[in-house]
Amino acid sequence: MDSTLPAVAEELLKEIKKAFQETSHVPDDLLLGLKFIFGPSAVPALDLVDQRSVTRVMSPSGRTAYQVLGSSGKLYTCYSSCHFCTCPAFGFTVLQKSESLLCKHILAVYLSQAMGACQELCVSEEQLTSILLAEEEDEG
Q1: What are the sequence ranges of the domains in the chain?
Q2: pLDDT tens-place string over residues 48-88
Q3: Using only C-alpha atoms, what is the Rg of the chain?
Q4: Which position among 16, 72, 101, 119 has the lowest Cβ density within 10 Å, counted as fewest Cβ atoms?
Q5: d(CA 112, CA 125)
Q6: How far are the Cα atoms of 12, 17, 64, 80 from residue 1, in angstroms, in the given order?
Q7: pTM, entire model
């Protein structure tokens, strides 16, 4: 995980990945750790993973973004490489108030990576650019 999370969060995600690869489930102690470190984002993020709401969007050049279908039905674009999500909760809770490490959408991306639950979508460079520019237009 090439992210900017604290070491304890990185280690927890690595442990979740290891446990899931070995047993196909996440043990209770790691779920408790998830709730402790990520707070109220943990359970909704797990729900998004269960619903297979995370899609890894890749272009031929290797550029990658993630799209997460939120519980509201809106599609959010997440960038795990720079730890960013386009949802309002990320802007308010993470950036402005510093109350949380991340939003449920980015946590769902990290958990989907760890559990091998990402859907995959290969698009052209132009299509990926359109996805990224569509987010800018929504915000502008």
Answers
A1: 7-128
A2: 999 999 999 999 999 999 999 998 899 999 988 888 999 99
A3: 15
A4: 72
A5: 24
A6: 11, 11, 13, 8
A7: 0.89
